[in-house]
Amino acid sequence: MAFLNSFLCKNKRTHNIMDRNDLVNSFDLKKSEDFLRNHCDIECLSEFFENLLQKWKQKWRNFDDCREDVKEKIDIAFDELSMRDYFNDIYLDYLYVALECIILNRLHDKIYSLISFDHDEIDKLFYEKCKRLSDKDITAEQLGAPPDYAIPLFAAVVEFSNLDVRKSPIEKVNCLCTTYDLIFAELKSGIIEIISKSDMENQIPVIENKDIVPILMAVIIKSKIIHLHSNMYYIEHFLWKLQNSQDVQNTISNFKVAIEKISTLSDEDLKPCDGKICKEMDSLKMMQLMTTEEKYKKDEKKSLVENHVHRIYNLILTSTTCKLNY
Q: How many C-alpha atoms does 142 have within 13 Å on its Cβ side?
């Protein structure tokens, strides 16, 4: 993700000590702990954090008190570890992110239980609404997306479905950003495939945020996150190093817009569907596609939806042929 590379490598005077893939995949517990072991000369990582957190407050007056207490512990660890060795700016940025990830992983159950308790009712209402809409097979087109963009985005749904499993806000915001990237990647891949087989090289459409929000809504609905409002509160209030990243804030903002639109969505707001989205493919649909396959191959003006449907058709045809040959 470009935002991680641009944010952590903002100081041009420092050397690029990690490649882009390292930065993209660095925000999990194991890699954060490995970074400390490799760069901070900590013989016993568990003992270090146990000593740091042993005087943790047993009770907080409110969430602000909790947030200040957590931030204080991260700052204490950062001040101590940053003095152990020479760190240039990119090391210091990465050190702070690693500490956020590790400390909030260790405190997740205590903090998150308070947040989820406070958001229990709204979480349940939102989950039930997503479940009901998902059971009705709502498409992005019905939510306002351009018909050609309303293709199933399975990878994005799978990624976002893991949001509840992630423990630290760093890992959760990475899940949001990866989901967002997967949506764009799938759409752009489909557009490029269409353009590469036509004379439309100079007509590459721009995917705008207003088109992405309804697609994002569809992904959120299909993912059916049980504690979505709790997760968003956790991300917004317990994320520090990346909170000044404009890309991160834009992604969070788009998710918030999509969540708000789902919350206020009524059945009357749903647009009619043109029926092109392929949810199932029976023998009649297969026969129809078989008779139009040659026309489809010759047609230079294919849509993303048509490509999606014919891709499924070819997969079924290949699978059936293989079975017959076997």
A: 22
